[in-house]
Amino acid sequence: MSMNEIRRKDRAIVNMWEMEEILEKSEYGILSTVNEDGTPYAVPVSYVYYKGKLYFHCAKDVGHKVENIKNNNSICFTVVGKTQVLVSQFSTIYESVIASGRAENVESDELKAEVFKKILEKYCQAYIDEGLMYMERAGDKASVYEIDIESMTGKARRK
Fold it and tell me: Residue 71's pLDDT is what?
């Protein structure tokens, strides 16, 4: 069994639209990068799934994840959607998606603006105008990273 192969094939999500729906509606994801010494590093991030890619924002040119991406842009991104603990069954109802790919800093100001707006729409719906002004003031202090998804798997237990 390869590392990307799902052991419980009866729980595999096979429809791309279903994995995309989980990516679109989930609140946060875990971004996993590789440290310079080869050890893993994972951090929760707010994100958007937009036009078939994952995007997250962070401070410009600083931070552990940014340094890791500069050294090795291979990433793994994990999202857990709806969950419910089934106490009497010692189990959990869940849905999740794991995406692997490469992360790159977005250079296009137009794409950065689109992504920032999508982030505001996802997390700050009642404050879009204020958020756009905030983003404009933040200007060159913030970066947007794009994850080009190379492979993706989904898994769920819904009963």
Answer: 96
